[in-house]
Structures are given as structure tokens and as C-alpha cells.
Amino acid sequence: MSGHASRQALLAGTALLLGVLAAPAFAQAGAQGAGAEVADSNDDIIVTATKRATSLQDVPFSINAQTQQDIQRSGSATLEDLSRNVAGLTIQNLGPGQSQVSIRGVSAGQIVRDQPGVKEQVGVYLDESVVSLSLFTPDLDLFDLNRVETLRGPQGTLFGSGSVGGTVRYITNQPTTGQFEGQVEANINTIDGGSEGGSLKGAINLPVNEMIAVRAVGYYTRYGGFIDALGEGGTVRKDVNDGERYGGRLSVLFQPTENISITPRVVYQKITTDGFNRQDVYNLYANPYTTTRPAIQLGERQQYLLLKEGFQDETWIADLTANVDIGPVTLTSVTTYINRDILVSRDASALTGSVSVDLAFPTAGVLLPSNLRDTTDLETWTQEVRVGSNGSGPFQWLIGGFYSDIDRVYAQRLPTPGYDAFTDARFGAGTSAAVANGFPANSPYNADIPYKIKQKAVFGEASYDLGEVKFTAGGRYYDFKESRNFISGGLFANGDRRIGDRTKSDGFTPRFIATWEPSSNVSVNLQAAKGFRLGGVNDPLNLPLCSGGAGGPDAQVYGNRPTYKDETLWNYELGFKSQFGGLTFNAAAFHNDIKNLQVTADAGSCSSRVVFNVPKAHATGLEVELSARPAEGVSFSLNGTYVDSKFDSSVLDASGAVIAGIRDGNRLPTVPKFQMSANGNYEFPLSADWKGFVNASVQYVGDRFTQPADQENNPRTFVHGLPFGGAPANASTTLNLKLPDYTLVNFSIGVATEGGLEVQAYVNNLFDENPLLSFDRERGGRARLGFNVGQPRTFGITARQRF
Q1: What are the structural domains of the chain?
Q2: CA 202 to mean position of chain CA atoms
Q3: CA dist., res. 187 & res. 759, Å (int)
Q4: Nearest partner of 100 among 90, 92, 89, judged by Cα
Q5: What are the beta bridge partners of residue 593?
Q6: Residue 257 DSSP symbol
Q7: Do residues 439 and 490 touch, judged by C-beta distance below 8 A?
Q8: Helix (H, G, I), strand (E, B) or coil at 57
């Protein structure tokens, strides 16, 4: 099955399964009568989205919290897995550790590996510590989390820059002196058509005495691969995108008195993969047009490589959180240090080879293996100090200050052994050394881009409860400075030496909320809030690769754009929350008015990217979350989002032509109009000490575009224009760049004991969908075309023991 009929069958089948799970509960509920309370309402989740402990239903804006049990029962291993169960949260998968987060349709499109200056639109926090970093938001392990909070809408007042669309918070279980406890978990899984994976994880909470407790977490995960790499001479390497993740957390609670707590913590994680989840459609070396080379038609979950690829992300986080209760107020200090080393190693042979064809290199030069190595070395210091009321009176307040100091060194190298000899043979002896600008002569492109970014902010928020009506108001003032050097060299570069490029900004982001609570079970919230995303400095174009060079059309359109401005957003929101017994229903209608949206555009054939400010855009929509426990042992939930996000202005070149698809009325990229999930769980007794459970879920994600330009002239015909291997110069590939909608169905069954043992067998992606997650291109399609794809059907068993 495929297409519309397949999706309808999936939805119908899963709906039937959920209905079977829920039927016994509804039968019991009907027998009890309309007025009976059929489930114990013991679902009060405490969150800290307002910088103080608050019931989830009492937070005066739209928020979702996925608890540890939600995470475990859904089988979620990554934030991307979890996002499909959260209304409004969208993850664009660009490979392990490189996913982009967006909330409520606020998205500027794909940020790729060589855009180090672009800031994030969603802030990501580990407890109190901000850990988001543009493209490279850490893919943190979800083990031993208390919950994951998704705060929808701008959170600039309390969470600052990068929270223009919202904030995601990983909340870990904290050390406690109350009791000795822990858990261990083991998993083994196999990917249909791929390789095996598994994990082993453990956590322990150890009270030392009444004042000190230690909590330690360790984990190891082996990722199975499912992408096969074809190579020269008919070679095939299986499952090249396998990898591993390991790490841990160690935190200590020191509580000398009831009013003082100090919690230092160290977090370490390393991710290593041997390749990427990319499915090639066209490759300079592997396509159906060659005649003097074997013609190759690449298939599903296949790619073509001359070199192995890889990704590494090693992260250290050290933070210290201190809380001191001083009478009617609480003083909080959060100090965080982060060190990250990231390597993205790609086979850029087709990219380099496509340029070599244009330069009239011989076939041997075009076939040289070429390795593009992007490295990021990051050091971040942040300090937040705040003081807030801790009484129970109607007036509550909080004020604080924030400071961050970021040193980030980004570098690119393109080692291509032998390229200097071909360059000198083509352009004259000494050419490769003359253009190197201090970099290796056999690397045709090199760049060093160190950044220094500093930000200061003061913030505050206050609320007053008049009974049925409550008012909340707050604001944040920020001051931001960024300086950057750009040094490049090699045949493909300009030989730039730009020292001291700078940008700075400041601003104020307010928030106003009015809450009406006609009863203890119902609240209505009306909000207006502003968020911001910091601007930055654009990289210069790689002019030697541009069509026509420095005077060509690509340089004229995309050049001379040194900086881009802050992006700001006003969110207007009407929210409704209700909870009656075992039934919770929350909904929100929202309108985001976006100014100076930062949109990334491929600069034609330059192999460069430029950020544009779009004067006006919007994201308007509705999100709904329903959960119910109609009877003991039965629960289900339904979450959905509809969002209309579009440009409200166009960006034009000197001739009046639209640049990069930034056209009034075009959709904002990466975000589906509609996304939904349905989950059902049924627990039943097997004996006095054993119970069984069954879980089923269906997750639907609507169609999207990777970049704004993808909806122009779509389906798109890519004329490769590279007469290599006997391929005609007019050879072309036509693709529909609208990423199709997809539906994933997951199912699990298991048993659990009163003693804390749980064993769960599952199958994820039951019907083996091959979702296209984003579109990947090199040199405008002249070198390579492909899609990042999702994981195939996966079978697994998980066992965990709590003690």
C-alpha cells in the first residue's frame, strides 16, 4: 500500500486498535452512570515553567509535560520521538545530534552544518541550564528524567534569547535525602532490513546522611544502522549510519539547613555515528545518465560514497544551582559551564568533483576522494541570579539577571590528497600554494571562524490573584554583542581575512496574561507576549564557485549582505484548560506576528548560504490536547495542531524577482500544517503481583518544505549540467520537493510486577513507512540530491527494574 489509501488504512487500523483498548473502560463508565467519577484524578503534574513549582493546569499559558512514564511507555528514545506526542512541537531531522526544533510553526527553514552564526528559535534547557546551540542542540538521553516540558509561545521574559517560538526543558530527577532508590534498564532491538542495537542504563539515588545525597546516572546505547552505501567497483557497505551514545550525570545535594540547598552537577555525553540517514536520489558518480561509467539507479535507503562519513559530539556540562530561602523570598543562583567538541565528517567527493568538472580537470582529478570536515569547539559560561517571593499571598513576583559569555571556534577543511597537483597542472605551477592563504595546499577550501558572543539581561515577572481573575505581567531587557573573524583559503575560497566583524543589539520583550478561573477545574487565559532571536553576521560568498564569479548573477543577488537583524515576534493567544476527574482537555488558539524573520537561502551555485530578514510573516493556529482515564487501568490521549504559517512580504532582487522562494503567501518551511497523535494504554491484572499492559499509538505528520524556495517551480527539475562519465550536459532529475505526509504506528505489550520489574516488547513504525524528513542538496543539485529519512520498522524488548 502507498499514498492516500495506505494512510487511511493506517489511521483506521490504529483507531480500531485504540477502540478495542478503550472499549472495556467505556463499558464500565457507562454502567456507572453519567454522574459517577470513574477514575481517580491523581494526575497532578508539578512543573517549573514559571521558575516556581506550579501545577501543570495552573500555568497561565500553553504547556505540555511528558512524564518519565509517558516517555517509557511510548518507547521514545530521542526528542524527535517525543515530539510526535506533543501538540505544536516539530523536529526536523538532519542527522544524529543535528536536529532542529520549532514550535507552533515559527520556523526559518533548514540550518545546515556550515552556518555557525545562526541562532536557535527554540531554547532548550537541561533543568536550569541553557544548552541549545542553533543546529547542534544536544541529543540528550531521556533516561531518569522526571519530565520534558514544552512551553509553547515566546518565553523571552523568563528564558531569554532563542525562545522566540518556545522553550523545551529536560527536567532530571534530583538527588534526595529521603530514600535510597534507583533503576536499571536493558534493551535489545533489531531494525527490519538493518542491523541490531541495544542499550544498558542505570540510575541510583544514595542518601549519605540527612544533609547530603548523591544521584548518579550512566547509559550506553548502540544504534542500529539502516542505510547502505554503494561505492566504486560495485562495493556495498551495509548499515553505515550505525553508532553509539554513552554518558552520565553525577549530582550532589548539599542541604545544611531546611532553607539552603546547593546542587553541583557534572554531565558528560558522547555521540558517535559512522554515517548519516541520507537516501541519495542523484550523485555525480552514481546516476542513470553515465555511459562511460556504470549507470546506477539508487534505491530506497541507499547512498553512494567514496569515503566513510561520521559524526561526533562530545559534551561536558558542569553546573551549580543554589537556593536560599530568606524569609518571604527565595534567592536562586545558577552557574553553568559547557564545553562541546563537534565533528561532522562528510564525503564531499561529489561536491568537489562537480567543481572539478567545471574547471576541466581530467577524470582522475574528478574522482579524487574529498573529505569535508566541519569542527566546532564551544565554551560557554552563563550565570543567572534571581530572587522571588515564596509566600502564598495573592501577590507573587520574581526579578533576576542573566549573563552569558560564549567562545565558539568553527573551522572547515576539505582535505583532498592529490588536488594540489591537478590544480597546478591545470592553472600553472605554484597555483595551489598561492591560493592556500596559510592552509594546506591539497585542501581546496578552508575556513577558520572564531566567535565571541556576550549577552546581558535583566528580567522580572509579577502576578496578582483577585480570586476568579489573575493578572500576570513581566518583561526582559537584553543587550547583545557579537564579534567574529573570517579567514579562508584554497582554490574554492576568496582568500578572505576579515578581522573584527561585529554586530550588536538591545531590546525589551514584555508579556501580559489575564486569567479567568470560573471554577477550580476551568481556566481561560488571554496572553500577549513578545519574543526575540538574536541577529548575526553573514559569511562571505565563495565567489570562485558562483556562476560567473564575482560579477555573476549569484554574486549580484546574494552578495553584499554583511549582517542580519534580530528577529522579533508578538504572540496573541487565547487558551482554555479544564480537568474533571480523569478527563483533561486543554486548547489554545494563537497568532504570531513575526518581524524580520531570519531565513536561510542557498546562494545559487556558490555553495554558500546567506541569511535574509523577511519584513513580515505570521503563524496562526489551534492546538488541542485531550487525555482521559475513564476507568482504572485505561488511559488514552489525543493531541493535534493546525497551523497556517506564511510569509506576509517578499524579498526581491534588483530586477524585482523573488529571492529563494521568499514570496508573500508562501509557506514557512519545515513545519506541517497539521500534526496529530493518538495514544492508548490498557492495564489489566494477571495475578496478585503481576499486571499486563498494552500500548498503541498513531502519529501523523503533514507535508512540509525543507526550504522556502522548494515550493517555487515545484516539482523541480534539476539540470545537472556536468558532462562527466559520458552523461549528457542536459541530464536532469525531476523531484517533488514537498515532503509527503507520513503516519507512524507503534505497538507494545508487556508485564509488570509490584516489585518494580517491567518487561516490554514493542514494534515501532509497524507498517514500515519510509518518511522523508528533509531534502538534502549540494551545489544546487549539480553534485548530489537526496533526502534524510526516518528509521524503518524496529522490533525490540526492554526490561527495567526499579528498586
Answers
A1: 3-33+45-189+225-802 (2.40.170.20)
A2: 26
A3: 10
A4: 92
A5: 570, 618
A6: E
A7: yes
A8: helix
Going 253 to 257 to 258 to 262, the CA torsion angle's sign is negative
DSSP strands (E only) in 274-414: 278-283, 302-304, 310-326, 329-347, 371-389, 395-413
Say if residues 315 and 268 touch (Cβ distance below 8 Å).
yes
Distance of CA 151 to the CA centre of its chain: 15
Which of 193, 257, 359, 8 lies closest to 792, judged by CA? Answer: 193
Residue 6, φ and ψ in degrees, nearest 5: -65, -45
Using a 10 angstrom Cβ sphere, with 0-12 exposed, 13-18 middle and 19 or more buried, the burial of residue 319 is: buried
Cell of 319: 553546573
Distance from C-alpha of 789 to C-alpha of 620, rounded to nearest angstrom:
28
Q: Determine the pLDDT at residue 76.
A: 81
Q: Tell whether omega for the bond before 288 is within 30 degrees of 0, i.e. cis.
A: no
Max CA pair span of the chain? 91
Q: What is the pLDDT of residues 405-461, one digit of tens each?
A: 999 999 999 999 999 999 999 999 999 999 999 999 999 999 999 999 999 999 999
Taking Cα atoms as reference points, which of 71, 69, 98 lies closest to residue 84?
71
**pLDDT tens digits along 543-602:** 888 777 777 888 888 888 888 888 999 999 999 999 998 899 999 999 999 999 998 887
Q: Interior CA angle at 119 toward 383 and 172, to 5°? A: 50
Is the Cα dihedral 414, 416, 417, 420 positive or negative? negative
Cβ 383 vs Cβ 332: under 8 Å: no
Please say whether the beta carbons of 211 and 177 come within 8 A.
yes
DSSP string, 444-478: S-EEEEEEEEEEEEEEEEEEEE-SSEEEEEEEEEE
C-alpha cell at 674: 497539521
pTM above 0.85, yes or no: yes
β-bridge pairing 260-273 and 243-257: antiparallel
Residue closest to 538 by CA, chosen among 412, 449, 663, 656: 449
Residues 354, 781: Cα–Cα separation, whole Å? 10
DSSP helix/strand/coil, 232? helix
CB 592 within 8 A of CB 568: no
Helical H segments across 397-459, by residue range = 419-427, 431-434
Quote the cell numbers at residue 403. Answer: 549573563
Encoded amino acid at 181, one letter? E
Strands 716-719 and 732-735: antiparallel
Q: What is the pairing mode between strands 228-230 and 302-304?
A: parallel
Give the DSSP H or E segment for 31: helix 3-32
Q: How far is the C-alpha of 163 from the C-alpha of 157, rounded, in Å?
A: 9
With beta carbons less than 8 A apart as the criterion, state whether 337 and 380 touch: yes
* 581 φψ region: left (φ > 0), alpha (ψ -120 to 50), beta (else): left
Alpha-carbon distances of 639 from 12, 127, 626, rounded to whole Å: 17, 25, 6
- How big is the chain, counted in residues? 803
What's the one-letter identity of residue 569? L
417 Cβ partners below 8 Å, 6+ apart?
368, 369, 442
Cell 541550564, located at residue: 129
